[in-house]
Design goal:
Layout (H helix, E strand, L loop, with lengths): L2 E6 H15 L3 E5 L1 H5 L3 H8 L5 E4 L2 H9 L6 E3 L8 H6 L2 E5 L4 H12 L4 E6 L14 H10 L3 E7 L12 H13 L8 E5 L1 H6 L7 E4 L10 H7 L9 E6 L2 E5 L4 E2 L5 E2 L4 E6 L16 E4 L2 E4 L9 E4 L11 E8 L2 E3 L1 H8 L3 H6 L7 E4 L2
Parallel strand pairs: 1-20, 2-3, 2-9, 3-4, 4-5, 5-6, 6-7, 7-8, 8-9
Antiparallel strand pairs: 1-10, 10-18, 11-14, 12-13, 14-17, 15-16, 15-18, 18-19
Helix pairs in contact: 1-3
The structure holds pyridoxal-5'-phosphate.
Pyridoxal-5'-phosphate binds next to α9 and β9.
């Protein structure tokens, strides 16, 4: 393979424990959707299986994959499930997310009936992302209907926040209020209530409730630069992923040589141009063309020209000894230098989530054990 990833499971476990201590007594849900944010679903889950309150995934296939990998902890499928996949969810002993009150909810119950044990559900409440969930005004009637259905086991209720990174906005508190108010008639029920993802869990103590659903911070990445600036001193998070490739070609070129499609880069002096065997199809955002950098022999080498589908060119003039076969670090430390997913997000004009979630599944991952 032309690139590889090294994942430090010990760092992930340490991040989880640090966050759990920070948010206690709220319990810790580990969000492992999108292939554990690119870190590898099964291996990340195994490192946390004896310890988490629940794993949170998006799709039913992820729940089934976790069970195939021998995972025993509870699982919550947060996303929609095709009616034909409800059997799989039940067979995977996963809790599903329910907000329907019509034919779909009856179908869920019928699966519980046929399989002779209730389907475990968390009711989803829409409080301000304008995405999935029951309108707050409909929560009481829906929950009562779920409770009257013996084939449904109502285990929890949750919502999701739209602007938890924004400390100067009170919208988080507005959403929390809508959530709590819609559940007020159910105060006595043993429902697991949850609304906080990483940013809220770290920044808004009042949102922690019974459980926090932590994704990005689990991987040692901050939900936003502002969150990092605010809490970087208070809680230590260690990035867990190292992404490397190798130079496949290095050539000396004179000044005034153009590099790549569209000839958007021209050398201004005699230069050494290196070629990486991965491009935007392998997870390097095309938006970092003429903006990003990688590390070769501990030195920062700029990405020059446009990122191609499967190749990327870099300027290695500052590393005279560089030659084909040398290791290139995209994310991680090399000598005294480090590049982070945050750096890539800034160059690409996106968020760290997108950088790691788009690293392809096929890239081989090597795991450092906990
Ligand atoms: C992705 C997701 C999370 C985790 O968000 P982070 O910001 O990565 O912690 C939590 N809850 C829901 C519903 C999500 O979709």
């Amino acid at each position: 393979m032309l690139a590889s990833l090294e994942i430090d499971l010990g760092a992930i476990r340490a991040n989880a424990e640090a966050i759990a201590a920070f948010v206690a007594p709220a319990r810790f849900g580990a969000v492992v959707k999108a292939n554990a944010y690119g870190h590898g679903l099964a291996d990340v889950a195994r490192a946390l299986d004896d310890w988490v309150a629940t794993f949170c995934v998006y799709a039913v296939e992820e729940a089934a994959a976790l069970r195939d990998a021998g995972i025993n902890a509870p699982i919550l499928v947060m996303g929609p499930i095709e009616p034909t996949d409800l059997e799989t969810a039940h067979a995977s002993h996963a809790a599903i997310t329910l907000w329907d009150t019509g034919a779909y909810a009856r179908r869920v119950a019928s699966v519980g009936r046929r399989r002779q044990s209730p389907m475990r559900i968390h009711a989803k409440i829409e409080t301000g992302v304008t995405r999935l969930g029951l309108a707050p005004a409909n929560v009481a009637a829906a929950l009562e209907a779920y409770e009257r259905t013996p084939e449904l086991e109502v285990a929890g209720a949750f919502s999701h926040l739209a602007a938890a990174e924004e400390l100067d906005s009170d919208f988080t508190l507005v959403q929390l209020e809508r959530f709590q108010e819609s559940l007020a008639p159910f105060t006595a029920r043993p429902l697991v209530r949850h609304i906080a993802a990483s940013a809220a869990a770290l920044l808004w103590p009042q949102t922690r409730l019974d459980l926090v659903r932590v994704g990005i911070a689990l991987y040692g990445l901050w939900p936003s630069p502002e969150t990092h600036a605010r809490l970087g001193e208070k809680i230590a998070l260690a990035p867990a992923l190292r992404w490397t490739t190798r130079l496949v070609e290095v050539r000396d070129v004179p000044a005034e040589t153009s590099v790549g499609y569209g000839r958007t880069y021209r050398t201004t002096a005699q230069s050494r141009i290196g070629v990486l065997p991965i491009g935007y199809a392998e997870g390097i955002p095309r938006a970092v063309s003429n903006r990003g950098a990688v590390l070769v022999a501990g030195k920062r080498c700029p990405i020059v020209g446009r990122v191609c589908m499967n190749m990327t060119m870099i300027d290695v003039t500052s590393v005279p000894q560089a030659c084909a076969g040398d290791e290139v670090t995209l994310i991680g430390r090399d000598g005294v230098s480090t590049l982070t997913a945050e750096d890539w997000a800034e160059w690409a004009g996106t968020i760290v989530y997108e950088i790691v979630a788009r690293i392809p599944r096929e890239v081989p991952r090597v795991y450092r054990p906990t």
